[in-house]
Amino acid sequence: MEDVVMVDATAATPAHGWDAAAAVVVAAPQRRRAQDVLERSVSALRGGAWALSLLAFLLMACNEHGDWKQFDRYEEYRYIVAIGLLAFIYTTLQLVRHAVRLTGGQDLQLRTGLLVDFAGDQVAAYLLMSSLSAAIPITNRMREGADNAFTDSSAASISMAFLAFVCLALSAVISSFKLAKQTYV
């Protein structure tokens, strides 16, 4: 690990051999490392949301056990399937966009990209929360009457949607931080 000297640019005097440019040079690697950590964190969170929303979608879409145990007979479960698929598509597009950016390809303008990240993460997260909150009451009522593979799969899908929500909500927090740190001058 490197020894980093913190310099107060306003207190630097020529007698010490430091000037404002030296302070910027010393602080630049730290800032770059912090930005790299934020980028990796957002990518990891979106990757987690990608996998979890795919699981939520697949668990509910495959939840067909005959008679009343068909997910498509309940609009709450159809809603969680639709939103799980939508969150999966959104996170896939975001991960592809990040991969293109890493390989040196063309990306959106910085400000536009930050706004897309922030708004998209928030919308996807709130839609996931909406879908799972719609599916919880019907699942609880069904589990009171019969606890079976259908209700277990429904509960697992709801759990995966909640975890995907957590990943996207944390990603939205990081996106809002990056958006707030952006200078518009």
From TrEMBL:
Classification via Pfam families: CASP_dom (PF04535)
Protein's UniProt keywords contain Translocase: no
Residue stretches spanning the membrane: 79-100, 156-177
Membrane topology: Multi-pass membrane protein
Domain Casparian strip membrane protein, residue spans: 39-167
Lineage: superkingdom: Eukaryota
Keyword list, A-Z: Cell membrane, Membrane, Transmembrane, Transmembrane helix
CC annotations in GO: plasma membrane
Entry keyword annotation includes Oxidoreductase: no
Cellular compartment(s): Cell membrane
Family: Belongs to the Casparian strip membrane proteins (CASP) family.
Complexes and interactors: Homodimer and heterodimers.
Name this protein carries in UniProt: CASP-like protein
Taxonomic lineage from the root: Eukaryota, Viridiplantae, Streptophyta, Embryophyta, Tracheophyta
